[in-house]
Write a structure and sequence with these properties.
The structure holds 2 protein chains of 2 kinds.
Chain A (H helix, E strand, L loop, with lengths): L3 E12 L2 E12 L3 E5 L6 H9 L6 E6 L8 H7 E4 L11 H11 L4 H14 L15 H14 L4 E5 L7 H18 L2 E6 L2 H4 L5 E6 L2 E6 L1 H7 L4 E7 L4 H8 L4 E7 L2 E6 L4 H10 L4 E8 L2 H11 L1
Parallel strand pairs in A: 3-7, 3-8, 5-6, 6-7
Antiparallel strand pairs in A: 1-2, 1-4, 8-9, 10-12, 10-13, 11-12
Helix pairs in contact in A: 3-4, 3-5, 4-5
Chain B lengths: L1 H13 L2 H29 L5 H7 L8 H17 L4 H6 L1 H6 L5 H35 L5 H31 L3 H31 L5 H15 L3 H13 L24 H31 L6
The chains are: A alpha/beta, B mainly alpha.
Chain lengths: 309, 306
């Protein structure tokens, strides 16, 4: 069994009467890429701050590779590379100088770190701008520099707080690909928080969805979809809606919901009912104008929790 | 902590505001020259002693003494180096990133404070050396051992004084998120303690002691006024610096006319002057420690959000 990197139990953070994170149980094993999803204000960043020891939990505990972030912050911080939301750099220093400072904070030997910084700047495609002050960097360049900064200390675990925020689609793709690569080649565990599911979904082994400080859904992406009670949705646009037709469709096997909106009937069912639904429509002498069948995607699940939020 | 210290040092010396500090040093030296040619030159020709100290403590017809200059502008130097030390990193988003590296929070704070203090020491020592140099060049004399001891003592007292204002402004930078607010608060405290407190000290003494009718009430009034004024760092500094730079100051309290005949007219030794101001130095350093402790307790448990 591989090592447990993140473990929390009953992790709770309250600000006065407001509960930002409620009783969170998390468990991440080495090499996993975990997507921590949820709308803004659902407690993602607060959870991350607790994992890093940048704020103290009100109740419960967290362990990073066995270390307690509150009691032994340095042990934790040696292993974690953290890319904050809106990462900040010293604007009057160059990209390279900013990384050199990080290296010194981590007490890395000078020659070794200088070489590593050059390599990382190449890797994040910032070699051309490495001597420029960070104040002149674009949003995407800062994010890339942030990634280099995180990787510099050779972390076991990387925590990325909304890393795709404010990037253009090409930038997002590039960044996610790089994250995926580093997790594969160097076996780094990745904890990536985002409020944009479709972007990160494809690189995650497992996701957890946060809503109002609680983790409402957690598991591998594919499994989460299967776990949804409503398996299929069928949208039928017909020339005429008759009560008999609706009754017949509602009575089809495994159909548990039948919603009529204008000339469109939407069937929700556990099994695929397309052939028998078509047969039923023909039987009633109604013309089928359009038919659309869709899988319940994770996006839909996600949206459901988001609409509640 | 070393990494933070050296980065902050590089920052202090590289910033535009350092030019302001250098301008202060230059201004102090020009001020000294005007004191030298205005007052001290005459003293030199009449073969007075302690000319180097006189450069610091004498005023001219136009200008107050250099001591006043330092007690007035010194706090500004301290405030300039500290008022945005923590909150600017917070707004810039660098604090969360720095603290996600294996450094203790107190190292960040201590590194910044020590770098500020070292910068202030450099500024203050170069001011004193510049003034001594200007005196040597213009009057053609060298300081003797006694004067050097007194000047070193003065350097220590003035660095403690500037360090106190650094500690105040750094505390403000922790308690207030906005750099403007923390600068205002630090400058407000400075104005309050430098001018207001000394102004009201007399009034408070009036209230408690009442009218001065005889020797006893006069002494009581004086003591109360002095003790209230001593809450102000600038008063404390002026008193200590005055004593160190003026060997004829023998006591900080009152002495009565009838005690005067018993006094020796010769100046006291540097060591004795130092003993006289020892409580002042301790008081200033304790004030620094108190401000550091307050900032520290606030900063250490705080949530660092980017």
């Amino acid at each position: 069994m591989s090592e447990v990197i993140i473990e929390t139990e009953g992790l709770t953070k309250r600000y006065g009467n407001f509960t930002a994170v409620e009783s969170l149980d998390l468990r991440l094993e080495e090499g996993e890429v975990f997507g921590f999803l949820g709308p803004n204000g659902s407690g993602k960043s607060t959870t991350i701050l607790m994992l890093l020891g940048l704020t103290e939990p009100t109740e419960g505990w967290a362990r990073i590779s066995g270390f307690d972030p509150t009691r032994n912050p340095l042990g934790v911080k040696r292993m974690i590379g953290y890319l904050p939301e809106n990462v900040g750099f010293y604007n009057d220093l160059s990209g390279r100088e900013n990384l050199q400072y990080t290296a010194r904070l981590n007490e890395m030997p000078r020659e070794e770190s200088d070489q590593r910084i050059e390599d990382l700047m190449d890797q994040v495609e910032l070699s051309a701008a490495k001597s420029q002050p960070v104040g002149q960097y674009s949003r995407g360049m800062r994010q890339r520099l942030g990634l280099a900064d995180v990787l510099l200390k050779e972390p076991k675990l990387v925590i990325l707080d909304d890393p795709t925020l404010g990037l253009d689609p090409a930038g997002v793709n590039w960044l996610l690909q790089l994250i995926q690569e580093m997790s594969k080649t160097e076996g780094i565990t990745v904890f990536i928080s985002s409020h944009r599911l479709h972007e990160v979904q494809r690189i995650c082994n497992r996701v957890g969805i946060m809503s109002h400080g609680k983790m409402v859904l957690e598991g591998p992406v594919g499994e989460l979809i299967d776990r949804q009670e409503e398996g299929y949705q069928l949208e039928l646009e017909v020339s005429e809606v008759t009560p008999e037709l609706v009754q017949a469709l509602d009575g089809l096997p495994t159909v548990d919901r039948c919603v009529v909106l204008g000339n469109t009937i939407t069937l929700s069912s556990k099994d695929q009912v397309r052939p028998i639904a078509m047969a039923a429509i023909q039987e009633h002498g109604v013309e089928l104008l359009q038919m659309q069948s869709r899988d319940r995607s994770l996006e839909e699940i996600y949206l459901r929790y988001f609409q509640e939020g | 902590m070393g990494a933070i210290f050296w980065k902050e040092m590089a920052d202090h010396f590289g910033r535009r505001r350092f030019i302001f500090l250098l301008a202060l040093v230059l201004l102090a030296i020009i001020w000294a020259l005007s004191v030298i040619f205005g007052t001290v030159q005459d003293a030199a020709s009449s073969r007075e002693e302690f000319l180097f100290l006189k450069v610091f403590s004498s005023n001219t017809d136009v200008l107050p003494s250099l001591l006043f200059f330092i007690s007035f502008f010194g706090p500004l130097a301290g405030i300039i180096l500290g008022f945005d030390s923590i909150n600017s990193e917070r707004t810039q988003g660098t604090l969360a990133r720095v603290l996600s590296n294996p450094v203790h929070r107190d190292s960040v704070y201590n590194g910044k404070f020590l770098a500020g203090l070292a910068t202030l020491a450099v500024i203050q020592v170069s001011t004193i050396l510049g003034i001594v140099g200007a005196t040597m060049a213009s009057l053609g004399i060298v300081p003797d051992g006694e004067e050097i001891i007194r000047l070193v003592g003065f350097a220590i007292v003035s660095i403690a004084y500037l360090g106190l204002w650094l500690a105040v402004s750094m505390a403000a930078s922790i308690f207030f998120r906005s750099t403007v607010v923390s600068a205002m608060v630090a400058i407000g405290l400075w104005l309050l303690s430098t001018f207001f407190l000394i102004l009201v000290a007399g009034a408070i003494a009036d209230f408690f002691v009442g009218e001065i009718v005889d020797q006893e009430t006069a002494i009581e009034h004086f003591n109360m006024e002095t003790w209230i004024s001593r809450v102000s760092p600038s008063f404390l500094f002026s008193e200590a610096a005055d004593t160190l730079l003026n060997p004829t100051v023998r006591t900080l309290g009152v002495f009565l006319q009838e005690q005067v005949p018993g006094l020796l007219s010769s100046p006291i030794s540097a060591v004795q002057s130092l003993r006289l101001v020892w409580p002042h130095i301790v008081a200033m350093i304790s004030a620094v420690v108190i401000f550091l402790a307050v900032s520290y307790t606030k900063f250490i448990r705080e949530e660092i959000r980017s």
